[in-house]
Design brief:
Layout: E1 13-15, E2 19-24, E3 31-33, E4 43-47, E5 54-58, E6 67-71, E7 80-81, E8 85-88, E9 91-94, E10 101-107, E11 110-118, E12 125-131, E13 139-147, E14 152-155, E15 161-164, E16 168-178, E17 183-193, E18 199-203, E19 212-215, H1 217-221, E20 226-229, E21 240-247, E22 263-265, E23 269-277, E24 283-289, E25 299-301, E26 306-310, E27 314-323, E28 330-332, E29 336-340, E30 344-346, E31 350-351, E32 366-368, E33 370-378, E34 384-388, E35 398-399, E36 402-403, E37 407-417, E38 422-431
Parallel strand pairs: 4-11, 22-29, 31-38
Antiparallel strand pairs: 1-2, 2-5, 3-4, 5-9, 6-7, 6-10, 8-9, 10-11, 12-13, 13-18, 14-15, 16-17, 16-19, 19-20, 21-23, 23-26, 24-25, 24-27, 27-28, 27-29, 30-32, 33-34, 33-37, 35-36, 37-38
Length: about 450
């Protein structure tokens, strides 16, 4: 039978001085993998089968024969000389190639080191894959039916064991939150495994999908990929993205409460809660409780988005939960803490309307967490000159559209705080008018 001599370009390694390693008699392309330099190896060669394969080395060192040695998992320090080398001029050829071994060629001052993998000893075959009963809400377990998913090892010059990744791919679909669109969008996903065992574990996808196992990278390079898929998997897994946004109105006479960025502060506090869920969420609910453990739920809301006004002092805990159709998988959001401060009202006793625009020209209370408010202002004869029921409002010193004369006026306030405190306040207001200096013409001076 005529011997076929095949030179695979991808299997060659060019070294300084143009020294060359060549594989001969191969049926499929020899795959070259470049390892880390710390391994001491120039290359790793993956041969479909070493049966009938020889390796040749061409030396540029005239007059000297290249010396070959072979080592196992013990490392290059235990390499054994190879005597059955055929020499033809500068070319030396090893005809008895053993796979899963390391080789060292010494050519004068040059040294060539490489590892040969006999893939036929690790041939990958997929009989099928299926979803295992070990799957739960967070994890999918896939049962692998096949062979050759074991670890392919090679050894460095120092005898350190390393794994040569098979790059076995598991392809499936899931969902990923799109912040711009504010929704969960489909995403094709590939999980890569260096090797596989009887069961594969991955994070549960967020949508229904099938799983396709493809591999390994060596068979794909040789155009002989193995592939198998599961039936459509109905995911029980749930995920949600939630947010809490407080509508804060800048009010100059409202006392600050709490740190910037915290929810709550002075009541009433309007907060918008929103949630976006993945496909498996069937039952959804926002929950509020005064108990951080949510042993007692004070309020429930089934809408994904809603606005709530917090009027009671103290801490309220808010979370979002969702369940799948079977009720065996739940999702709980992070807990939002809404802190409403204790109430307070402070009343000034003087202001100066009409004297300097924008400066102390409106009488306002200083308040915090007031949920009910009534204020009445009277002159010395008991005539009501102003009234308002919003603590953010005030009196501009006018009655029937005109500024009242300077003097003493009286306020009566009935209010209620978020902490249940009732306020019944009375006091006097002194209006001080500072007349502007006038010119000789009688016009105010600038």
């Amino acid at each position: 039978m005529k011997k076929i001599l095949t030179t695979i370009v991808a299997a060659n390694i060019l070294l300084p001085g143009f020294c060359q390693v060549t594989f001969n008699g191969v049926e499929n392309e020899v795959i070259t993998v470049r390892p880390e330099s710390s391994t001491g190896l120039d290359n790793i060669y993956v041969v479909y089968s070493v049966a009938g394969v020889s390796i040749s080395y061409t030396s540029q060192n005239s007059g000297a024969k290249a010396e070959w040695s072979r080592y196992s998992n013990l490392g290059g320090g235990y390499a054994e000389p190879i005597n059955e080398i055929v020499y033809e001029g500068p070319m030396s050829t090893l005809t008895n190639v053993k796979g899963d071994m390391g080789y060292i060629i010494r050519d004068g001052s040059k040294t060539v080191c490489f590892w040969v993998v006999d893939y036929s000893r690790h041939a990958f075959h997929i009989g099928g894959i299926s979803v295992s009963d070990e799957s739960d809400c967070q994890t999918v377990a896939l049962s692998f039916n096949g062979s050759g998913g074991d670890i392919i090892r090679y050894y460095t010059i120092n005898g350190q064991g390393k794994e040569l990744s098979r790059e076995i791919a598991l392809k499936y679909n899931t969902l990923e939150f799109d912040t711009d669109m504010n929704l969960y969008a489909p995403k094709e996903t590939t999980a890569t495994f260096d090797h596989i065992s009887a069961t594969l574990f991955i994070d549960s996808p967020l949508c229904n999908t099938d799983f396709t196992l493809v591999g390994d990278r060596f068979l794909q390079k040789w155009n002989m990929p193995q592939e198998a898929s599961t039936p459509t998997y109905v995911t029980p897994s749930i995920q949600a993205t939630t947010a809490a946004t407080q509508n804060r109105e800048e009010i100059d006479n409202e006392q600050s409460s709490g740190s910037k960025g915290e929810l709550g502060g002075s009541a009433p506090a309007d907060i918008i809660f929103s949630a976006v869920t993945t496909d498996a969420a069937v039952f959804t609910e926002w929950q509020m409780s005064r108990d951080m453990n949510f042993d007692i739920i004070d309020y429930r809301e089934t809408n994904l988005d809603f606005e709530y006004t917090f009027r009671d002092a103290g801490m309220t805990y808010v979370r979002f939960m969702a369940s799948n159709a079977s009720g065996n998988c739940d999702y709980y959001s992070p807990t939002y803490e809404v802190s409403i401060g204790e109430s307070d009202i402070k009343c000034p006793n003087a202001f100066s309307p009409g004297s300097s625009e924008g400066v102390n020209d409106v009488w306002k209370v200083s308040y915090k967490s007031i949920v009910s408010f009534e204020c009445y202002i009277f002159n010395r004869w008991g005539v009501k000159v102003a009234s308002f029921n919003n603590p953010a409002d005030g009196w501009d010193g006018k009655y029937n559209g005109k500024l009242v004369p300077a003097g003493v006026y009286y306020y009566v306030i009935n209010a209620k705080g978020a902490d249940g405190k009732n306020y019944k306040l009375k006091g006097d207001i002194n209006i001080i008018n500072f007349k502007r200096r006038q010119t000789s013409s009688g016009n105010p001076a600038n």
